[in-house]
Amino acid sequence: MSTYIVAGLGNPGPTYQWTRHNAGFLFLDRLAHLENISISKKAFSGFCGEWNCAGHRLILLKPQTFMNLSGNAIRQSLQFYKLPVSNLIVIHDELDLPFGTVRFKLGGGHGGHNGLRSIMENLGKGDFIRLRIGIGKSPHGDTTGHVLGNIPPLQMEGLSRVLDGGIEMLEVMLKEGLPKSMSIFNNKNFLEG
Questions:
Q1: Are 130 and 9 in contact (CB under 8 A)?
Q2: Which of 20, 59, 60, 104 is 20 to 30 Å apart from 4, CA to CA?
Q3: Which residues are registered as beta bridge partners of 103?
């Protein structure tokens, strides 16, 4: 049985709750709701919960340090459980993917994402698994306003379908491996059909 840290990225507090940048928090909230788990234990500068899936132990982590410092919480959790970076799954919003798509990616740069930048600075490397939730680019070129803006009503209607799709991807990855999950889901849009 492997142990994984599953870290959802976001900013704490009600102001940010429904912003695009909080896709990682929203993912873990949805998972907690569906699986009846509590992510409320204070640890690693964040809130933690635990979920067992496909024979794996998943430590669910919502860092409460604000996005640009989230690497600190993740480093603490990996050290505590004595886990390699390969056992880290980071869930975050992704500008380069349209809303409705969720994709796995192994390794890569931070692409200007402050949460990923902080994690890579803390860990000294970026070869962890990312589950990227598409939020699309701003039509006006205002990236900061876009990521910190609230998810519009029309997208909110489809949000649970998108998050449920991401949860299914995570379950397939844990049961059948990352390549299999990527081949099934990486070209899918969860709002179509």
A1: no
A2: 20
A3: 132
CA distance 131 to 169: 9
CATH code, 174: 3.40.50.1470
**148-156, Cβ contacts within 8 angstroms, sequence gap of 24 or more:** 148/16, 148/19, 148/20, 148/21, 149/19, 149/20, 150/18, 150/19, 150/20, 151/18, 151/19, 151/20, 155/99, 156/18
Count of structural domains within the chain: 1
Q: Which domain holds residue 170?
A: 3-185
**Contact present, 105 and 153 (Cβ < 8 Å):** no
Residue type (1 letter), 37: I
| Residues with active-site annotation | 21
- The owner of tokens 């930048």 is 117
pLDDT digits (tens, 9 = 90+) for 10-52: 999 999 999 999 999 999 999 999 999 999 999 999 999 999 9
